[in-house]
Amino acid sequence: MNTRGLRSQLKDSVPVAGLCPQGAYGVQDALRAGFTSVKNELLPSHALELSEKNFQLNQDKMNFSTLRNIQGLHAPLKLQMEYRAARQIQRLPFLQSSNLALDTLRGNDEGIGFEDILNDPAQSEMMGEPHMMVEYKLGLL
Description:
With 141 residues, the protein is mainly alpha-helical. The chain is built from nine helices and no strands.
């Protein structure tokens, strides 16, 4: 059985104490982590939510196994290294990154999906003071 899938199923069904980071006074820092909901920490809201959450991971595994069978071990390893390098490219913490390099590697740059229309950075819930967010990311706070 896939241990990663089991771990995500357990995380979705059992509340985990480490999900909400504690601030200096023992309460959650709502400015950095946002508001929490007990309902979101307990159960997935729909039976297909777990499948949809792991869709990209399952798609990548299937593509890597097919690529390994066709071209050998080196091809999926090289592609995984390219994915990892593309994931590390980010903007400053207060700006949303488009991950264009990762979308290009996966072939998602040629199609238009709902995330392209509904994922407007101007409507993002993640807003904060830029200086404070950069200092937090660098470990100065």
